[in-house]
Design goal:
6-stranded antiparallel barrel; 351 residues; 5 helices
Length: 351
């Protein structure tokens, strides 16, 4: 009967450990001295390398997944940082462009300030007026800086408007395009004078009551005439954009476009003009009795002429009224009364 392996007895465990330890030491010494096991080691490593790669695949996969998510998180943070930096850079670039434009505008205003012979003050637009039916702006200069009502406001090109209301630290400027604004102008080419009126629309002016045969052409430059005593003469106002003449109309339809950058700039120039206009003459005082007599005679003459000329046209009646008014002599211009007759000398002597 064969004895089971469990019950077989061999060399003890200590003996086997000792034998294997001595064998290992001998092999180490032989390999270190003679390099005999190098080829064997390389062969065994070559055979075991595929098994090592297969065994290390789970570790490498876990490491790759961790690196992927880590890199993804880093890239997302960098992307957000770059986007924020791009926004900041775009804002800085816009501010730089705005500052450059303001610098150019201020330089132009400085040149204009040196060209204008009157004292001037630079103001900045705060906001537009609240009324949507008017063309007005508010500047950051007021009576404390010497601004007064009626002073003109210009930019580097020409007239922008006129100061219409003044507060201690702000001022209201009515633009040329306002429907209640008018400015005396003249054509630079031939000196023809007229008045430009605002239409209430942005970028449009009208030259009203110009004859159809007036010497004005498309492209003519309009400048201030200076006859109003408010605007200095020679400042650019507008350019003629459209001229329409019809045979049936007595006046031409002339549309102009302002030259000044009313809706484009924030800095303007206020001309501190002292308006020393002469006082308005008082109306002539006439005698009340002469005025009443003149009105009564004019009424009587009109009544008589209307009764005689019932079929006359309105123009004929007006001309007759004017003729009758011209023929009436006021009492002040009437000839002096004849002196009283002298008394007889005989009676005087008798007395």
């Amino acid at each position: 009967m064969e004895i089971p392996p469990l019950f077989k007895q061999g060399a003890s465990a200590r003996l086997r450990v000792t034998v294997f330890a001595l064998l290992s030491i001998v092999m180490l010494v032989v390999d270190a001295r003679m390099h005999v096991l190098g080829t064997i080691r390389q062969g065994i490593g070559t055979v075991l390398y595929p098994f090592q790669r297969v065994a290390m695949m789970p570790r490498d996969a876990a490491s790759s997944v961790a690196d992927y998510f880590s890199a993804l998180s880093v890239l997302q943070k960098e992307n957000q940082g770059l986007q924020q930096q791009q926004i900041v850079n775009s804002q800085l670039m816009q501010q730089a462009r705005q500052l450059a434009a303001e610098n150019v505008q201020l330089r132009k205003l400085l040149d204009m300030q040196q060209k204008v012979p009157v004292k001037s003050l630079v103001g900045e637009i705060l906001y537009d007026a609240r009324d949507p039916f008017t063309r007005k702006i508010i500047l950051n200069r007021g009576s404390q800086q010497g601004v007064a009502t009626g002073q003109p406001v210009i930019d580097a090109i020409g007239i922008v408007g006129q100061v219409t209301r003044v507060f201690p630290f702000t001022a209201e400027v009515t633009l040329l395009t306002d429907k209640e604004q008018a400015i005396p102008v003249q054509v630079l080419r031939n000196g023809l004078r007229s008045v430009a009126y605002g239409r209430g629309q942005a970028g449009v002016l009208d030259l009203r009551f110009m004859p159809a045969n007036a010497d004005i052409q498309k492209g003519d430059i309009l400048v201030t005439s200076g006859i109003d005593g408010v605007y200095p003469p020679g400042l650019s106002v507008a350019t003629v954009a459209q001229v329409e003449t019809r045979s049936a109309d007595s006046f031409a339809r002339i549309v102009c476009q302002p030259l000044a950058g009313i809706d484009r700039h924030r800095q303007l120039l206020i001309l501190l003009v002292e308006q020393n206009l002469p006082p308005r003459p008082e109306p002539e005082v006439t005698d009340e009795k002469a005025a009443k007599l003149f009105k009564r005679r004019l009424r009587d003459s009109t009544r008589d002429s209307s009764g005689d000329d019932a079929n006359a046209t309105p123009k004929d009646n007006v001309s007759e009224e004017r003729k009758g008014a011209a023929n009436v002599i006021p009492p002040a211009a009437a000839p002096a009364a004849a002196p009283a007759p002298a008394k007889p000398a005989g009676k005087e002597n008798a007395r």
